[in-house]
Amino acid sequence: MVRHKSKILCEFGDFQTPVTLALEATNVLNRLGVAPRSVLEPTCGRGAFLLAACQVFSQVNKFLGVDISTEHLSYLKERVTAEKYSAQIEIINGDFFNFNWSHIINTLAEPLLIIGNPPWVTSSELGLLKSSNLPQKSNFQGKSGYDALTGKSNFDISEWMLLKHLEWLKERTGIIAMLCKTSVARKILTHVWQYKQKVIRAQIYRIDTLKNFNASVDACFFVLLIGDGSLSNTCEIFEDLSAQKPSHVIGYQDNTLVSNVIDYKRWSHLRETNSVYIWRSGLKHDCSNVMELEQEGDKFRNGYGNVFSLERDWVYPLLKSSDVGNSRTSTCRKYVLVTQRYIGEDTTHLKFDAPKIWGYLQNYREYLSKRSSSIYRNRPEFSIFGVGEYTFAPWKVAISGFYKTLNFVQVDPIDGQPVVFDDTIYFLSCGSKSEASFIAALLNSQPAKEFLESMIFWSDKRPITIELLKRLNLRALAQVLGKEEDYNGYALSNYYQKSSILPLSQHSRYETSPINSPKPPNSL
Hints:
Blueprint: H1 7-12, H2 19-31, E1 38-41, H3 48-56, E2 62-67, H4 70-83, E3 89-93, H5 101-106, E4 112-116, H6 123-128, H7 145-149, H8 157-168, E5 174-181, H9 182-194, E6 199-206, H10 209-213, E7 219-226, E8 234-238, E9 248-253, E10 256-258, H11 261-267, E11 280-281, H12 288-291, E12 292-296, E13 299-301, E14 307-308, E15 315-319, H13 321-325, E16 334-337, H14 350-353, H15 355-363, H16 365-369, E17 395-400, E18 409-411, E19 420-421, E20 425-430, H17 433-443, H18 446-453, H19 466-469, H20 474-480, H21 484-493
Parallel strand pairs: 1-2, 1-4, 2-3, 4-5, 6-8, 15-19
Antiparallel strand pairs: 5-7, 6-7, 8-9, 9-10, 11-20, 12-13, 12-16, 13-14, 15-16, 17-18, 17-20
Helix pairs in contact: 2-3, 8-9, 11-18, 20-21
């Protein structure tokens, strides 16, 4: 979200809904034929949605607003009094995370409309603020231990709240209608479809956040109709709140959220795990000022501006997202210090094998020891991640996870050295230039792009993930393109893909023993 945020704004995700937006969104529900008997705004703030619902739904028996801010509630009470609403409106001061919701929900008649604008803030942002405005800690997303350690367990507070709303309506009929990030809406849809919850219709209406909140973020008015009937496995997407017809439909196929159902079904036979070509992620070190270097003659300058002479056998050309995303791969702007050949390798040998590098690392030991990620705990000193035999393959095919285009790039050695990537890059290792050229051509083919794009949501911060790339089977793709014989020849001869050393995303959580395999070459 692009804007300067105060601590209060950050802590409570406090983007108050403009009255006009609340009324326009509520009228969408009226247009859909929604006729609630009770309306609840669980984080009502100044009550924009609550008061909009009072205007739109005359048949409602009870309106209820709850919020943690007494200041907002005082404002809301003044508005209710001044505008003389005849409806029964109850306003309660309460903390969403420590409130007896089950008691409240049981007093509200069905169909129940749960409407509002929950906080636009993540758990990690609140953690940085040392905020107490958080749910009790739990791995509610079911992330693996390693994913949780490396940050994938970070979540939007609104996601947690929306899951609670679904829980409240588990045995009831009602409607959930919330302003939220579009990425959050998709996560909720995945949850709904994965666990076959009784959602009979789903819709997403895009909203102009720059106009309404002075914030640059992809957000929507998210509507779920909950009740008895045929379960929906699709969601209609509307370009704005006034749109009468959806622009397209997203859905759930093969336990996957897909952005284009038609293209996914056309190429679904390409979906299978690769047994030979395995996607890897780049190097993770979390200390760029020390580990990333710029070459000056035969020496290297670090991020602190200091120049050192270092052994070249442990310093490699580095390419980042902007390099790969823009196909700038023939030269490099930076180099990276690679302290290990496999995850968990003892680094003390550098004292004898690379004394200059060992001395350099000792100079910056304090910075490296303060790396916040818990993946470095109980590891050899100066450890890195995302490293294995595949890292040192001379040729690679790579793609940026951040760039909004499917552009697979062949990466050749630079000055006789294999190229290393940062952890925003995904790549396949190849044993020859012709193999890399062949694999890149496969991946840039129309069938490959249509299949992958059918599962990509380009508004995501990292639209291309290693999980996505793993779904495309290169052998099946080669068959479609009439290239299976060539594929088999390369697959059988690729030494690096046969390596038993796993990437960061697949590595045994705390493996420390070395793999008995030849030492990868540093230069060709």
